[in-house]
Amino acid sequence: MKKKEKKETNIQKIVNYYFKTKGLNLEEIKESAKKKKIIYSRHVRPAKELLELAGSLSKAKEAIKKVANWAISHHLDYTIETVFKRWLELDKLKPKEVVKKPFYDDHPMVWSDAKQKWFIIIDGEWKEFAGDEKEIEWKVIK
């Protein structure tokens, strides 16, 4: 006898989408729920309330995505409840900008507007950069 596959409800879709933004797929969610690492039912009520607040599944998912991007870029944890707390400022939530800094040979560099030149900082001492700008390595600093 085959089991009937149940159709996913909108509430389940919201909870599963939330976990997807956390980096889990459906199989990992099921496995974690079996091992009691995730208490799936704890997320059902907030998902239902979010669906009511957003008015549609797509708007609820969009709100989760905005909050997820914002929280991840600021190295913060988030839950479905975070979406409620940030609901009024959703349009203002922007992911943190990625800042790239110039380096040469793993030494930080500084651009001097006054002298219109690059300088390398080696052990706190500024030395004029004599190389080509193509040699500058741009790194993301956290």
Strand % is 15-25%
Based on secondary structure, the structural category is alpha+beta
What percent of residues adopt helix (DSSP H or I)? 25-40%
Would you count the extended β strands for me? 5
The strands making up the biggest β-sheet line up spatially as: 4-3-2-1-5
H/E order of the elements? HHHHHEEEEE
The total count of helices amounts to 5
Integer-rounded radius of gyration: 24 Å
Cα(first) to Cα(last) distance is 55 Å
- What is the number of domains? 2
Oligomer: single chain
Instruction: Give average pLDDT, whole number.
Output: 85
3D shape: elongated
What does this 3D model show about the protein?
This protein is α+β, with helices and mostly antiparallel strands and 142 residues long. The protein folds into two domains: 10-92, no CATH class; 100-140, no CATH class. The protein is built from five helices and five strands, in the order H-H-H-H-H-E-E-E-E-E. The protein has helices spanning 10-21, 26-34, 44-54, 57-73, 80-85, and strands at 100-104, 107-112, 117-122, 125-128, 137-140. A five-stranded antiparallel beta sheet has the order 4-3-2-1-5, with no helix packed on it. A hairpin with a 2-residue loop joins strand 3 and strand 4 (125-128).
